[in-house]
Structures are given as C-alpha cells and as structure tokens.
Amino acid sequence: MKKEKVFVKIRSEIAAGTRGSSLGIEAMEIAAINDKNTLFKDVDSVELADQNHLLHDKIDTPHAIRIEGLKKVLETLMNGVKGELDKGKFPIVLSGDHSNAAGTIAGVKAANPDKRVGVIWVDAHGDLHTPYTTPSGNMHGMPVAISLGADNLKNQINDISEKEKTIWNELKNLGGIQPKIEPSDVVFFAVRDTEEPEDRLGEEHGIKNYKVEEIRYRSIDVCLKEAEESLSHCDVIYISFDVDSMDCDLISYGTGTPVQKGLDEEEAYTILHYFLSLKKTACIEFVEINPLLDNKGNKMAETAFGILKRLVKDL
Description:
By secondary structure, the chain is an alpha/beta fold. The protein has helices at about 25-35, 40, 65-85, 100-110, 145-150, 160-170, 195-205, 210-220, 220-230, 265-275, 300-315; strands at about 5-10, 45, 90-95, 115-120, 185-190, 210, 235-240, 280-285. Strand 7, helix 10 and strand 8 (about 280-285) form a beta-alpha-beta unit.
C-alpha cells in the first residue's frame, strides 16, 4: 500500500559554517521546474519556521554557535515531524543544515516513545562532535551526539560556558527523552571526514561505518543486507541523507563541506531506496544542498532532486 507522503520543509542554516543551505529547497524546486516535474505540487507540504535572522547577531556561545536559536529550531522540527507521523503520514524532511536531523530524530522518537529507533546515516561526516570536542563550534557537526545524549568528556578539548552547558543538556533531553537512540542502532554509510574525538567516540560505542571502499569491495548488496540485519531489533528506522556523502568531484561542490572520494549518484540512490523500502522506515531527510557553493550551476540540487523523484515513486 502506498504511504501518504508529506514534505516537511525547514530552511534553518544557523548551525552551518558557510551560508547558503537555506536555499537548498528552492534549488531543488527549480530543478523540478526545469525537469518539468510536478512533484512539489503533487505532494502536500508543511513549512516550518527557522531562526535564520540570528545569523546577523553577535555570537556569545563560541563552542556551540547559535545554540539558543538551534534549540527553537529543533523543537519546531520535533513537533512538526511528530505531528505528521501521528496523522499516519510519511514525512520527507527537506532541511538546510544537518543539525536539523537532531530535531527530526527527536520527532520520530516522540511519535514512538516506547519503540527503538534505528538510524541510517548517509554522510561524509559522523557528526559526533559536542561542544566539549568541536574545533569549530558549528553545530551541524553535532546531531548524532545530541541524539545519543553524548558529551564525549573523555576527549574534551574545550572548557564550555554555563550557558552552553545548560542549553546543550536541554538539547539532549528534547521531548523529555534521553537518549533518543542507542549507538548499536546507528549505521553510517560513506563517512570519511572525521576528527579524532569523533573517531574515539565512534570506536568506543562500536558504531558501524560502511566506507565507500568497503561498499565497492564487498558489494553494496552485501553491506545493505548486513546493515539491515544489524537494525533488525529496531522498530522504526529514520534515514538521513547529507548530499556531501556523494563525491564532490564527480557530482558538485554545492554543499557546505564537500569531500572527495564519496558515493556516486546511483550508489546513494541504491542505499536510500533499500532502506526506504522497509516497512518500518518512517521518515527520510535531505540536507546540506548549497547552491551558492555549486561549481556546476545547480548540479547538486538537480542530482538530489533526481534521487528524490525516483524514491518518491516507490513510496
């Protein structure tokens, strides 16, 4: 039976280090228009409020930049996603920067408080930093840690302020549930650009990462089936797709933190399609499309839309 789909759009980019991911949704819509595709007209959509006006304000939390605004964004997204799931709909979240995933995961968990949530994380980055370990303070590198309720104090390099600490603890406890996910319920695909504190946290918790070379050497089918089996104890699955999981030289540099030697378009589609076809998958999110950084016109948005339209056909 086909699922009733809804686009949940949130343009927040306050947690990114570069500007422009708030324009990613429009860039995909332009790609659809140029493709003469009516997907964005045919599927209902919900627009959620962002806090992008805060980009003009002075930063007073250097290890968790704009964390106060991000808390509002994540609460908004949590409530929006939960609301759509409670209506029996399948949310396709279109986001700005990847910090928003923490709000989406919180929404999936809030709609399924007694169920175990599994996460398929398709990204060049592990996003396992915390205010205690971040070298940049950009919170789009923290959503997995937020969802795990992790501080990673063993690898602390920053002394954070009381304000940062207080709001960070509130982020981890969004919806009154902490943690939202267990480390054994997270599977990375294509993660290849991480820093030592993230690596140590990932190793400590045994988070599996199917690197690009492993996917190609062992075959993508083998890796997908193995990943599905590892999440067999989960009741609900959420998929997060950061377009920087794809090879920037092959596709485009139209994303905030492009990384070489990533997935090609077909590999990305195959991973997403596999998990989207599982009955227990409840939500998917597209993030970090940045047309301002695109070195090939609107190529990243066109590629992401090409993947999206194929996936929606099968939902």
